[in-house]
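Report of the visiting student (M.T.), summer placement. My assignment was to run the structure pipeline on a short list of targets and document each run. The first record concerns Ppx/GppA phosphatase.
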Amino acid sequence: MIHDSEQVVAFIDIGTNSIRLLVVRLGAGGGYSVLSEQKEVVRLGEGEFPGDQLSEAAMDRAVLVCRTFVDLARSFRATEFEAVATSATREARNQQVFLNRLATEADLPVRVIAGREEARLIYLGIRSGIDLGDQTALFIDIGGGSTELSVGTGSGYKALYSLNLGSIRLSSLFPPKDKHGIITQKEYGKIREHILEEGGRVVLELKDYPINRTFGSSGTLQNLAEIAARMFHPQEQNASQVLLCPDLVKVATRLCGLSVEERRKIPGINPERSDIIVPGAAIIETLMQVLELPEIIITSRGLRDGLLVDYMEKRQTPGDHSVRQQSIISLGDACRINQVHAIHIRDLASALFLSSRKVGVHSFGSFEEELLGYAAYLHDIGSFVSFTNHQAHSQYLIANADLLGFDQQEILIIASIAGLHRKKVLVTRGRVSSGLEPQYLRTVQVLGALLRLAESLDRTHIGLVRTVRFLRTGEKRLTLRITCKGDCHLEIWGVEREKRTVQKVLGERLRIEVVREMDGFHN
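After the run finished, the structure tokens were exported:
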């Protein structure tokens, strides 16, 4: 029975190899109970690499499983769904086709997350089930299309990485010549060479951290640990909870010499992984040997658990987006923005947003207000590249940044708004970031116009404008009341220049009214 104070939420992880479901009941006091956990192998990334195209058959399988999971979650009275897609989807050229099918055929809106965001969520999921204290740990997750690594303590992460190395990807890139799937040591060596080439820089950075413990998640690691336990430690309880490096090397050598059908019969193996487990073993073996990791502690926690933790943290502290805020601030710091100006523009943009909503210009909510604030804070980061056309540089830098806590569409909305803060106004899709969904075009237009006004109100970068707000003075008529300290003629000149553009976007006639604090004089 679900009480009024409780809520049921479903978390879905659409991976390259499998799709996982977690349904939980959240209590009013911050606790939760698991109602259902499901996993289905769909091989979404099968045949995708290196062409970056999801096959129709793979999409059919994924949509069917997601529809089943949605129905199952609703049978538990789930009212909210948090679904994310990872490597296979984010790299697919036909990504939007797949997302549209999920939305229409499975009634499931899905966020596509970046690799480092995936690593952050995996870190949250694993960390939530262990007591690290001050110890520094390495977290490894081997997926079908990518490998996520993170370094952190009990209080937070220190580094996040995502490598284009996964069991399905490597199986596609390095298919065995033997028709039965036997992999020679030479072929295995080539796979390991590729792993070192792809992950060399990350491995060097990881060596700088004093790693005390290593945790591994994902089906690949669990399978390898189970095989090693059955093969070398059959009498030991819980032997599959730790994977020793020497054991892994022996397991990998044994698996290479077997056909796919022979691998299916190995005690401890999941038969569905028999054709992709060797490349997965190569990734783990390479990381363990190069980083000199004696063992990996196996955990069943992972991305979907991280989705739950992330959701609960936001739920327990409404409005607190610390991960998002810190990500925005870090990008601004990296590009050496004028923080005082950035904060002032953010505050002016917020005032314009709230007052324009109050007088009926738009009906946007907290989601749009938050993204406008981030765009306002970062609007000038393009000056780090060049002041000339810096709005375009800002748009590019934001669109291609790994902003943690955001999905792809949120990042593209922020980038597009920032790209509109000067020069030509948006009238076509040509000025928005590639990949922005059409439904957000009007949002970007309106918020971009508000940001243009905010930028004009601090042309001197000395904060002369104290307050600003829209007032309704008639049908399709607004007054923009500006309160400033001293002579702000450059700011007023800037607003007058933007007046025509803003009127066109908002569909309102605009009158400017200036109040000077020094003498109460009105223009």
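The chain has three domains: 7-112, 116-305, 321-516. Residues 425 and 501 are 7 Å apart (CA to CA). I thank the supervising group for their guidance throughout the placement.
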